[in-house]
Amino acid sequence: MVQPYLRQVEEGERALVFFSRTFSHAIRKGPVLTESGMIDNFRMPHPEATPYRPSTEEIDTASAALAAVPSPVPPLFARVDLALDATRKPVVMELELIEPNLFLGHHPRGLERFVDAVATEARGDTP
């Protein structure tokens, strides 16, 4: 993946988690690059992840990214990573649909919401 560098990513990205296109919770991830500009593949991924309360604009931006997924049914789970651009507006850095870290332990109801979404899908209920 190649994308323009945003200096604001040094402040950390926001990861918004959705179940069946419904926002569940978010975390703020610390910067991934080391001071040398390299990724340290031996460190724990996202050691500085902390719970985060996203703005309405961030939720709307992430929801719009999910709405653009060409699928007849909503993804059961998704993570949308955002950063702020030079004007401090949220922009999508990554839309993770395959094997996202959902940071379930970073929100008191994260795991419960995930289980509910899986159960709803298994029953064939419409979310």
Automatic annotation (TrEMBL):
<protein>
    <recommendedName>
        <fullName>ATP-grasp domain-containing protein</fullName>
    </recommendedName>
</protein>
<dbReference type="InterPro" id="IPR053191">
    <property type="entry name" value="DcsG_Biosynth_Enzyme"/>
</dbReference>
